[in-house]
């Protein structure tokens, strides 16, 4: 279990909360680059860490992320006109540039300097890979840009999607470091999913339902090792890296692209799940990319024009009891992403962790909570920069390896869990 | 060894060397040690306060135990330990631990 006060500490990320301040030390995904495809694209509402903002690109193609509401009398700038290098409020024509600076107040005299003193809260918005990232903290402490491998390989080697998840970020994230559910919840996917099936490792995954967990600290977070029996005298290890606060990678399967997630709080009861797939050394095939677009693997089929999954809590995730009975899917919900989301959302918007019963297979979760808690308190009380802020901490990878029983997973896999350009993933 | 229940009642138990403080309590029907996970250091429901004089001999909690004591138990003290992580040795003859009024 987790004490209620700590559950609140870890799940609340609004302005001024310890966990909110922690998230504001990092660059986090704000939206996908495809949401602002060209200069003067329609502005997009963005809510992150309980702050409501608006993302837009001006006539020069520059990105801006500003307070959603006009400084005049609080009308939403979403209704505004994106024109002439700025966003103009539709109410009285006040106009702002990408830095949030007010550049025109039409009702004022031509020679008035009024608008110079008006500035919206604004954060940097920068494209790295297919993601637009923002940093919502103290400008003086802004770290270097993200160096996660999925965002740095050539565009033909990577694909990122996102989906709205209707629960607190922590319970979504905890699913990302919990290898033991795969044997059950995703057993159908290990057999059938085009982006998962066919790997030798899947057989070990299915045979051994009792993984043993070993957790090791990394510079930016943790490596969670899940050990299952392989052939006589050897173990199959699935190694999941976590980079604080919310980046996780799934251990690879065969030569399939490697995937992972970024779990970003929208507010305390909703989060964005960014799901990426990339291959470190080769382009994604047409079939792979199409499978991702179709919502296979870690991706979801979304309602067109939105990032809400077509299978969602309002339609019971299109539960198919016949498929459950036949064993096509273990839970009756189709797709790995929605299998996870359905159960994580089923816990309620913020799960009451005082009632949970943890077992040794949850040791990664216990360690991650403690690391988050300590980092949030060290930041609050002593201003300590948390792990994972330094971009060098981002250069990690997941790995799936078979090792002799006597070997330690981390000592044997230092290279395998490091993102080295041009070197393929370590996978079974 | 001696367990002191939250109502003050004392339970004197003959614990075997090599057993854990948790196992000795469960085997002898001492109430208040729930031990939900069966001694795997993952549930924190065998929390005890070690008596001051024995605390240095028992030693500090291990890494995972430290996390659980931090995050799960209702009243952590400097002498808090999880009973499943204390192995009985000859040096612990006469060990006294207090059982908190509630386990997580």
TrEMBL record, chain A:
The answer to whether UniProt assigns keyword Transit peptide to this entry is no
Cite the entry's keywords alphabetically. 2Fe-2S, Dioxygenase, Iron, Iron-sulfur, Metal-binding, Oxidoreductase
Q: Which Pfam families match?
A: LigXa_C (PF19301), Rieske (PF00355)
According to the UniProt entry, its GO molecular function terms are: dioxygenase activity
CDD domains according to UniProt: RHO_alpha_C_DMO-like, Rieske_RO_Alpha_PhDO_like
The record's InterPro entries line, in alphabetical order, gives:
Cholesterol_7-desaturase (IPR050584), LigXa_C (IPR045623), Rieske_2Fe-2S (IPR017941), Rieske_2Fe-2S_sf (IPR036922)
In this chain the Rieske domain maps to: 27-134
PANTHER family, sorted? BLR4922 PROTEIN, IRON-SULFUR DOMAIN CONTAINING PROTEIN
Designated name of the protein: Aromatic ring-hydroxylating dioxygenase subunit alpha
According to its UniProt entry, this protein's organism is Actinomadura alba
């Amino acid at each position: 279990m987790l004490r209620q006060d700590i559950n609140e500490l870890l799940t609340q990320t609004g302005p001024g909360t310890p966990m909110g301040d922690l998230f504001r030390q990092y660059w986090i995904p704000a939206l996908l680059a495809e949401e602002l495809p060209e200069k003067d694209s329609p502005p997009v509402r963005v809510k992150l860490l309980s702050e409501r903002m608006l993302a837009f690109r001006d006539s020069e193609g520059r990105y801006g992320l500003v307070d959603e509401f006009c400084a005049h009398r609080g009308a939403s700038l979403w209704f505004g006109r994106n024109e002439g290098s700025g966003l103009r409020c539709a109410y009285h024509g006040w106009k702002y540039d990408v830095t949030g600076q007010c550049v025109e107040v039409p009702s004022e005299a031509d020679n008035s300097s009024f608008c110079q003193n008006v500035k919206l809260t604004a954060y940097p918005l920068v494209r790295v890979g297919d993601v637009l990232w923002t940093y919502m903290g103290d400008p003086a402490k802004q770290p270097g840009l993200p160096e996660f491998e999925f965002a740095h390989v050539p565009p033909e080697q990577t694909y990122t999607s996102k989906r709205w998840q209707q629960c607190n970020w922590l319970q979504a994230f905890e699913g990302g470091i919990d290898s033991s559910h795969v044997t059950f919840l995703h057993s159908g996917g290990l057999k059938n999913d085009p982006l998962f099936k066919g790997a030798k490792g899947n057989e070990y995954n299915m045979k051994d339902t009792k993984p043993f967990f070993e957790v090791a600290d990394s510079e930016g977070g943790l490596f969670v090792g899940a050990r299952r029996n392989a052939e006589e005298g050897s173990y199959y290890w699935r190694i999941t890296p976590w980079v604080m606060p919310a980046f996780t990678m799934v251990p690879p399967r065969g030569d399939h692209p490697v995937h992972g997630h970024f779990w970003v709080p929208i507010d305390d009861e909703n989060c964005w799940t960014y799901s990426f797939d990339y291959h470190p050394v080769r382009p994604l095939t047409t079939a792979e990319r199409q499978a991702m677009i179709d919502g296979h693997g870690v991706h979801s089929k979304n309602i067109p024009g939105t990032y809400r999954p077509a299978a969602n809590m309002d339609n019971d995730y299109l539960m198919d009891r016949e498929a459950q009975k036949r064993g096509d899917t273990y839970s009756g919900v189709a797709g790995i992403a929605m299998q996870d989301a359905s159960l994580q959302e089923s816990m309620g918007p913020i799960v009451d962790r005082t009632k949970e019963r943890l077992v040794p297979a949850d040791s990664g979760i216990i360690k991650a909570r403690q690391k988050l808690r300590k980092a949030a308190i060290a930041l609050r009380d002593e201003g300590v920069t948390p792990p994972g802020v330094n971009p060098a901490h981002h250069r990690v990878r997941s790995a799936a390896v078979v090792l002799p029983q006597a070997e330690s997973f981390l000592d044997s896999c230092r290279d395998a869990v490091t993102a080295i350009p041009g070197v393929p993933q370590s996978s079974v | 060894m001696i367990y002191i229940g939250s109502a003050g009642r004392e339970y004197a138990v003959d614990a075997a060397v090599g057993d854990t403080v948790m196992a000795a309590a469960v085997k002898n029907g001492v109430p208040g040690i729930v031990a939900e996970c069966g001694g795997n250091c993952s549930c924190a429901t065998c929390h005890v306060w070690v008596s001051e004089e024995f605390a240095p001999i028992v030693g500090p909690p291990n890494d995972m135990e430290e996390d659980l004591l931090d995050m799960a138990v209702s009243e952590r003290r400097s002498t808090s330990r999880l009973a499943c992580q204390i192995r009985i040795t000859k040096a612990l003859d006469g060990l006294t631990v207090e059982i908190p009024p509630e386990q997580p």
